[in-house]
Amino acid sequence: MLLSLSWLREFTPYEGTAQALGDRLTMLGLELEDIKHPFEVLKEITTGYVLECKMHPDSDHLHCCRVDVGQEALLDIVCGAPNVAAGQKVAVATIGSKLPDGTVIKKSKLRGQPSHGMICSERELGLSEDHSGIMVLDNSTPVGMKLQDVLTLDTEILDFSITPNRADCLSVLGLARETAMAFHLPLTIKELTPTYGEESTEVPIEITDPKLCWLYAGRVVHNMHLGPSPLHIRQRLQACGIRAISNIVDVTNYILLECGQPLHAFDLAKLNPRKIVVRKARPNETFVTLDNQERVLKDTDLCICAGDTPVALAGVMGGLDSEITSTTTQVFVESAVFNPPTIRKTSRRLGLSSESSYRFERGIDQQRTIWALERATALLQELGQGTVDKHLNVAEPNPFIAAQIPFRPKYANALLGVNLEPDFAKTVFTGLGLKVSEKDTSWQVEQASWRPDLTREADLVEEVGRVYGLDNIKPLLPPMQLSLERHDVGTEFAFWRQVRHWGAGLGLNEVINYSFVGQKDLDLLGLPKDVRIAIKNPLSQEQDVLRPTIAPGLLQSLRQNLAQGAVSVKLFELCHVFTLDETLETHTKETAMLGLLFSGLRYEPVWPNPQEDMDYSDIRGVIEHLLRTLHVEQPKFVQVAEHAYLSPCVQIFIGDTLLGHVGVVKSAIADTYLAHKLVYLAEINLALLQELAAKAKVKFTPLAIYPCVKRDITFIGSKSLQVGTIKAALLDLKHPLICDVAFVSLYEPKESTDKHLSFRLTFRHNQRTLKDAEVDKERDKVAQAIVKSLGVRI
Amino acid sequence: MRFRQSFFPFTEPSAEVDISCFLCNGAGTKHGETCRVCKGTGWVEILGCGMVDPQVFAAVDYPSDVTGFAFGLGVERIAMLKYGIGDLRQFFENDLRFLQQF
């Protein structure tokens, strides 16, 4: 809300600065956003007197003028405006001064004639769109003054951010009321002394649904002369952010800003028949609004009709057919109050928000509606030489009824945590214009028509609190009972923190992505549609479904970093994923997950690090490391034939429990995320992992006293021979002396289909030192057993 | 720090809490220009709070003599203030150059 300080002063004699006013109102809940000086550039413009004006010798339209700007020497100025003439008072931009559009005036020559400045038009001064000629000032204007000082301009504008509950402050009057209350000043509302002509024009009003239109009033103004408004009206509207259009439209906007009542002006000649009907729109009824758009209406919209023909979309926008045009002479001015939610719905649905709809949505002071109409018609009379009709047309099926609100000073003190005298509350209420009847400890306060937000005791307590100043309430730390026990042990929160520290400690980077992803992302990953949970009112198409897997976010983070030139990406994320489950009350299964994504170089590309890409062993090693950190037993990795977005894909089992999977993102998908190197992705069920970690027990094994002996065996088999198969077979022997089996080397001869896999066995006896011969014998036995069971050679 | 009257649908009375601007130390200007963080006000909004609206308690069948306070602050906002991060979107982009600074 833009408030002009000089306009405010027409209602209350506030003498302080704009900043001081803004600061005080900010603490009262009306936040000052900015102070603007819309006509500051006019400080550089000087008033002048055209002493001489001759035609330019080499031009048929330029004039050579000699202008007095209060300096010793007269200025030679070449001017192209058709209306320039000797004896005029004009606005001059002298050498070095800057126009609103940024142009700096320089000394120049126009067709050989010197020009030491510029005589300005209204458009060049930023005062209007008028560029038909120069701006001619009043003859009494003194010469050599700053233009800003000789014109009556609204030079100080305060921009307030008004919270949705304070509809009353969307007007100069409302802000003046707050100012008067805050600074203990009187509030003066103009007394209207309307004069009416002889004509009495009845325009009957029929309201079909009183719940949707509480009050409708209108009056005719005859013999209007359409034209521009005078400068003081135009500049004021402009300073308050509204474009001046014509005297009729400007008056409706002026009154809207002044008292918060939106008005609408119809061309009376176009209201056929001459009868106003306020009714709901019929489904699929069409209507062309002022902006020349055809709107398809619904029965939740409210129409103002002439007879049965819609002429305006109530509270939102007028119709093209009844618009004020240059031929308009008779105006019907509407001042009404509509049901706020109706206006809000229509405005939202059609994407039409206007100064009017904004105020109707929040609530109108119904006891100001007729006053606003009277003020508007009087102003039309003044600006357009119109004659105001005698007859006031009004229908008020739903008059304002003030709420009677109970108020207990003691309760107010208790809720606010203060100790105020009851008199303070009384002063506040009176200052706000509320009527108070005191009855000992319980009062009755009557709501004011301009404060739809005050209906309950708590609302009144807030008024007392804000005027006292919430900042003045002494802070008090409430006593709380806390035990020294840790409350987070065993919680998901504590477990996640542990996993986060593990990941960060390993040098991985934790990412956090939105829980909302796009249906398109999931289609790309080839995920089934029937498990997805779509968002009803998505913010955008990129975020219209809950993530059923962690992959889309991680891949998005990968793309972001590859686009920034990252060469080594190691990410992890902890989150919840969501899938449809009809058996649950919420139909949504929420699972905690850990995601890992690796792609690119294994090490930072600096000396002496080798330049090599990460592979499966990296991500697998990290998973094993996590399980070891949590003391969970080591997993089994089992390759599966198919997965939606991983190929190859390996499932991770702890015993018989499927903990998650790990694999390489399919290349077609990786391509869309800009990845040119393999992308390794793992998804681990964190809830299951937490259970496993909670059950894990660390048991100490006494350190061996006797030394161990190591022996290597190399097995030879076909290319399809797997390390895991041999290792599992070796462990399955459960040899009492073998305490460790490690895979140490792989050799694949070039011109052969063979594969050589070497394992190192560690032998140890708990009670004595083993002899070499004894170990050799055991080694051979083991080797033979494997040869026999797996059909390999040694 | 200051408590400033405001509006939330679920608290009555409601307040915004402002802290003095970390960039200009509450002056509103920095190097002669309007401070870009507080836009010249010298204050930065940090959280909203208030006394729980009686209707909230009524909706969950609490007796009418129950009162309570409510407050909530955005962690990103606090981090922005603490580390001087200018753009909220950076929290959701997961750029390694951002992540590696913490």
Question: What features would you describe in this structure?
Answer:
The complex is a heterodimer of chains A (794) and B (102). Chain A is built from 20 helices and 38 strands. In chain A, strands 27-30-31-35-34-33-32 form a 7-stranded mixed β-sheet, with helices on both faces. In chain A, β3 (45-55) and β4 (63-68) form a beta hairpin. The longest helix of chain A has 19 residues, at 772-790. Chain B is α+β, with helices and mostly antiparallel strands. The two termini of chain B are 27 Å apart. Chains A and B meet through β2, α10, α12, β27 and α15 of A and β1, β2, α3 and α4 of B.
The main pleated sheet of chain A reads as: 7 strands, mixed
Radius of gyration of chain A (CA) equals 42 Å
Read across the widest sheet of chain A, the strand sequence of neighbours is 27-30-31-35-34-33-32
Q: In percent, how helical is the residue content of chain B?
A: 10-25%
Q: Beta-strand level of the residues of chain A, as a percent range? A: 25-35%
- The beta-strand count of chain A equals 38
- Count of DSSP H/I helices of chain A: 20
Instruction: Work out the largest interface and the residue count of each chain.
Output: A-B, 39 and 26 residues
Report the principal-axis shape of chain B. flat
Q: If you compute it from the alpha carbons, what radius of gyration of chain B comes out, rounded to the nearest whole angstrom?
A: 18 Å
* Low-pLDDT windows of residues of chain A: none
